[in-house]
TrEMBL record:
InterPro entries xrefs: ATPase_NBD, Heat_shock_70_CS, Hsp_70_fam
GO molecular function, one term: ATP binding
Transmembrane segments: none
PANTHER family listed in its UniProt record: HEAT SHOCK PROTEIN 70KDA
Name of the protein described by the UniProt record: HSPA5 protein
PROSITE patterns with a match to the protein in the record: HSP70_1, HSP70_2, HSP70_3
Pfam families assigned to the protein according to its UniProt record, in alphabetical order: HSP70 (PF00012)
Keyword terms, alphabetized: ATP-binding, Nucleotide-binding
Amino acid sequence: MQYLLALGGVVVVAGCMRISLVSSILAALGFRGRPQVVGIDLGTTFSVVALKATDGTISIIPDHVTGKQLLPSVVTFMADGKIIVGDGAVENRGRYPQHTIFNAKRFIGRRLGEVSLEAGTHAYHVSANFTKDSRSPSATDLSGPAGFAVAFADGTERWISPVEVGAEVVRHMRRSVSRHLGFEISRVVICVPAKFGVAETKATQESFERAGMKVMRILEEPTAAAVAYNLHQGEGVRHVLVYDIGGGTLDTSLLYMNGNAVSVLSVAGDDHLGGSDFDTQMRRLLESKLERGEARTSAAGVGKESCDSSGLHILAEAVKIRLSNNSQAEAICHSDGIDRVLVVTRAEFEESAAELFGRAMAPVQKVLDDQMMTADYIDDVVLVGGASRMPKLRELLQEFFGPTKRLHTEIDPDITVAWGAASVLD
């Protein structure tokens, strides 16, 4: 018996030594254990998932289909039950406009009567749920939850809630995480706009729960943006302005920060102003140049988009983006077998979009006026959202707050909120 116990001790010691050796090798290779929680920004236009490793580093998990960091928050529901999420769904907006849902975040947790004006701006049908005794949408039930009545070519129809749309986007991101890491993660920190009420926040949480995620914490988006820059770790009281302009909405939030205590003092914004509005203005500028005969012709045959309104709209976004880093950019479209080359300068675009830039600055003044404060009170300004990359917008903000105030742009503004959500994890 003593021999067996001694032998067992040798086996245990040998096993422990083997485990210790493996652990040492893994540690030398940088392995710090399995991360267990992700931070997700379920956005109106794009969604992002961030991961904090046990060594404190944060990374963005790429989409498992495209490899991109940003996942379009777009979902196509097909008649055969197939569901397409992300870039594939974006391609379906022209082919299946009535059952490709985008901007679902605008409707989540809201009643039909609250979104009646918004509903008319989309190709899909926004309505309350089907009535209990009929398969027709109860369009007159303005007190009912807003959703999407999808009619398929085979004559069937289905009501889809914004919660369900959000859940499909989250499921897609969860698959990306599991394929990237090689194991499942089910716990998440999520973010919601500061202007969301109880109903919208609860509905957003339900989207994650339907996707099999357990919500560990809910952050307001401006708080997550400030946390991404560790502004909550500074000493004393700080006032932080978070300027968030994405594809379709603008939110400006004023935060009070005193150590780890963070509160949103005031929120102002424009629910119908974002990057897409500047794209539309660029398209109009391109159209006017064509009408005035300012395009030069070329036989190169490199133009992929037509010179009609839809083709120019696609080119408009690309030109706007290039102007963020260049003083001028070209748009090449084709018509009658000939390429037409349009040159746009940054100055031309900024002049044509002067009214939009003016609207973009109005919420900054309002959020300060609400607290009877001036720009001098602000310690930090954090920029969030892809449209915040426009040089003119940054110039206007810098002029407003003065040359000594720093505009925080070190983190990619498209991923700042998700980065902040992951940052709060220990």
